[in-house]
Structure to design on (403 residues):
């Protein structure tokens, strides 16, 4: 894949972000801030999703006029203007055509890893596939969706020890509450902020937190409670970061042995160190092989409850791809590969093996232990009963093991 920012011989800078399999790109002729443009492209993708309900190729094709109208209001001669979903409402006159959401993780083994269907509703009144108008204010439940997402960056040594580990987390919301009331969100009472701050045993410690500008922090220091009026569309309440030692959900233990001059034997053991009531979904392990590889035979030793497991040599990509539908906590999985080379193995060829890259998603589990204690409306309203949907998802961002 191309890097998010690169320059071509024509002297232009090309920048892009990927969202749901779609590429949002930008071309700059001047020496502009790459971070600003990347953030703008991410904002454009978010606004498109807010107005279409779902972000897909079909949604963009059917709502091209609406999205062009939004883009015309958001940018003027290359300069950002209006980027808030709520402010753009007064500038938009076209109605979105609702497209049925097709999840990018359609083969999930557990629906808890995927958003509820109602979270994909547009923020304005829309038209369905049959041309009938659906007003967003009629027959709408008072719902609010909260996601606690954590992306792990972990680097293991060849002995299975953690060399570097960070967590990039966020709490994001999408509100469909009538009247847009003020909300109160409470986090762990024992939450400690600051890398050098010490707390009691079992307390949650994060390096730093930054909040959305709509959040009122008057009670945060004393009660770890946030108050805010949720803006239109999907938004991030806060971002947090954690570095240092934490319990990684999976440990990787590789070994490589030279059987003879043209044969290598590689063993990869993966141990799920999370509680037994949790599991990794759609786990994939990639192992790059030397360019001179003729053939690779793979054998998987799987534990009960893993579901469909497969390991094969993908010749076009020059790597072994090992996939597992489900990897329960407290279990171990082993893959052995016998690799035949077209020439004798040298030190340079050995360096072409690896590193191992692992991808996974863990529903209803987070590593940092940051929790939402409660989410409620600030002022009690008679007959107002909102539905609250809270889910936790842990994903691998860069989960790598050296060989």
């Amino acid at each position: 894949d191309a890097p998010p920012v690169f320059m071509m011989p024509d002297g232009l800078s090309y920048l892009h972000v990927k969202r749901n399999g779609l590429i949002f790109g930008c071309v700059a002729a001047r020496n502009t801030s790459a971070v600003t443009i990347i953030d703008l492209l991410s904002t454009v993708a978010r606004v498109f999703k807010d107005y279409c309900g779902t972000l897909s190729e079909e949604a963009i094709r059917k709502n091209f006029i609406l999205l062009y109208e939004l883009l015309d209001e958001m940018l003027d001669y290359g300069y950002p203007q209006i980027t808030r979903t709520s402010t753009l409402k007064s500038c938009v006159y076209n109605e979105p055509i609702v497209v049925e959401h097709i999840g990018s993780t359609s083969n999930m083994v557990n629906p808890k890893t995927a958003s509820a269907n109602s979270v994909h509703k547009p923020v304005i009144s829309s038209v369905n596939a049959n041309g009938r108008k659906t007003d967003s204010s009629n027959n709408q439940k008072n719902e609010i969706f909260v996601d606690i997402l954590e992306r792990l960056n972990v680097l293991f040594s060849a002995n299975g020890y953690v060399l570097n580990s960070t967590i990039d987390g966020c709490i994001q919301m999408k509100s469909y509450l009538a009247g847009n009331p003020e909300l109160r969100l409470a986090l762990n009472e024992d939450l400690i902020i600051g890398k050098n701050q010490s707390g009691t045993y079992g307390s949650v410690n994060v390096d730093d937190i930054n909040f959305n500008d709509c959040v009122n922090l008057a009670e945060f220091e004393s009660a770890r409670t946030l108050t805010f009026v949720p803006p239109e569309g999907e938004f991030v309440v806060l971002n947090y970061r954690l570095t240092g030692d934490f319990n990684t959900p999976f440990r990787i233990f590789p070994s490589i042995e030279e059987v003879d001059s043209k044969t290598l034997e590689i063993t990869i053991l993966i141990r799920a160190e999370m509680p037994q009531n949790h599991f990794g979904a759609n786990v994939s392990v990639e192992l790059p092989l030397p360019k001179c590889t003729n053939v690779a035979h793979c054998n998987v030793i799987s534990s009960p409850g893993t579901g469909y497991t497969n390991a094969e040599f993908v010749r076009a990509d020059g790597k072994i791809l090992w996939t597992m539908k489900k990897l329960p906590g407290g279990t171990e999985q082993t893959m052995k590969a016998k690799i035949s080379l077209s020439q004798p193995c040298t030190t340079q060829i050995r360096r072409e093996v690896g590193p191992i890259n692992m991808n996974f998603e863990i529903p209803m589990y987070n590593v940092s232990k940051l929790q939402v204690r409660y989410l409620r409306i600030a002022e009690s309203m008679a007959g107002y009963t909102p539905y609250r949907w809270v889910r936790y998802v842990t994903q691998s961002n860069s989960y790598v093991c050296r060989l």
Summary: The helical segments are 34-52, 57-62, 64-74, 85-88, 220-223, 347-351. Confidence is low (pLDDT under 50) at residues 104-114. The chain is about 10% helix and 45% strand. The first strand starts at residue 5 and ends at 7.
